Amino acid sequence: PEAVPERMAEIERLGFDSAWTAESWGSDVISPLAWWGSQTTRLRLGTNLMQISARTPAAAAMAAVTMDHLSGGRFCLGLGVSGPQVVEGWYGQRFTKPLARTREYVSIIRKVLAREERLTNDGPEYPIPARDGLGLGKALNVMTHPLRADLPIFLGAEGPKNVALAAEIADGWFPIFYAPKHEELYGPHLAEGFARPTARRTPDDFEILATVNVSINDDLAAAYDSMRPILALYVGGMGAQEMNFHADVFRRLGYEQAVDQIQSLFLSGHQDDAIAAVPDAMIDEICLVGPKEKVRDDLAAWRESQVTSILVGGPIETLRQVAELALG
């Protein structure tokens, strides 16, 4: 996109804390962040998310080490497993044992960052050196000395077991759909992870970075309508009917009937009807929509929540308005 470097500079000037890139099955997550991040001096630069099936853990660690040097210690590594449609349909890998794969993946990256010994891994998912090859693999240390051994690693997680894993092994958690008024849904799973003997963090120093879609518009109906296609796509079209992690989040929030209707309509080709079926209340759970006064009032729930950062996007004018409401 044009004018992104100028936009990044404006975001930094407005007082935002960080900037994030993502990947699905299009552009990669690192190249744009390095290009656009070079126009900044203060913003934390992170991936939300880097898909673990896209790279071996050693390659992800190399990218993290490189980005941390390029940014002067401002890089944050956000990781996620994605879903079976992408992992098996795009990357050609099996979507099996996602929890075990994530744990092993993060462990290998931390070994690379620590640089205390040559890299080996006995785990079944990512054996290093490789098994069943030529037998000539050599244990190595990363040549570029990491700038920070404690470079923060965040995990995207939606299911209860994944959330507990994030609290145990990561420095923070990306909930793609977070409802600040229903934190009782997440608390037990976070507490389970923090209570494990291997937990890295406590609730006091663990980051929760929630994606919050924003539409500031004096026309409340139009603001809701701008959010419906986003939720309909995730709930209805991002996954199969028998396995859609996004839909499961909203089911746990109490929207089972709406989710079933949206999925049925979307997957049967009636996408416009699926979009129209997204209820206003479901949007208000996770988004900031409506006139400035309503958005300002709704921000109170986020300030009182466990969330440490809200991640917002949109046109630069929307970001200016968010900065005014959040920081003013």
Please outline what is shown here.
This protein is an alpha/beta fold. Helices cover 46% and strands 11% of the residues. It has helices at residues 4-14, 30-37, 57-70, 84-89, 98-114, 160-169, 187-195, 220-237, 245-252, 256-267, 271-276, 280-286, 292-303, 316-327; strands at 18-21, 44-47, 50-51, 75-80, 153-156, 172-174, 207-211, 214-216, 288-290, 309-311.
What oligomeric state is this?
single chain
Counted by DSSP, the helix tally is 14
Cα-atom radius of gyration: 20 Å
What gross morphology would you assign?
A: globular
Beta-strand residue fraction? 5-15%
Mean pLDDT: 95
How many angstroms separate the termini? 29 Å
Low-confidence stretches: none
SSE pattern: HEHEEHEHHEHEHEEHHHHHEHEH
Got a strand count? 10
Share of helical residues? 40-55%
Structure classification: alpha/beta
**Biggest β-sheet description:** 8 strands, parallel
Explain what you see.
This protein has 14 helices and 10 strands. Strands 1, 2, 3, 4, 5, 6, 7 and 10 form an 8-stranded parallel β-sheet that branches. A two-stranded parallel sheet has the order 8-9. Helices cover 46% and strands 11% of the residues. It has helices spanning 4-14, 30-37, 57-70, 84-89, 98-114, 160-169, 187-195, 220-237, 245-252, 256-267, 271-276, 280-286, 292-303, 316-327, and strands at residues 18-21, 44-47, 50-51, 75-80, 153-156, 172-174, 207-211, 214-216, 288-290, 309-311. The two termini are 29 Å apart. The radius of gyration is 20 Å and the shape is globular. With 328 residues, it is α/β, with parallel strands linked by helices. The model has no long low-confidence stretch (mean pLDDT 95).
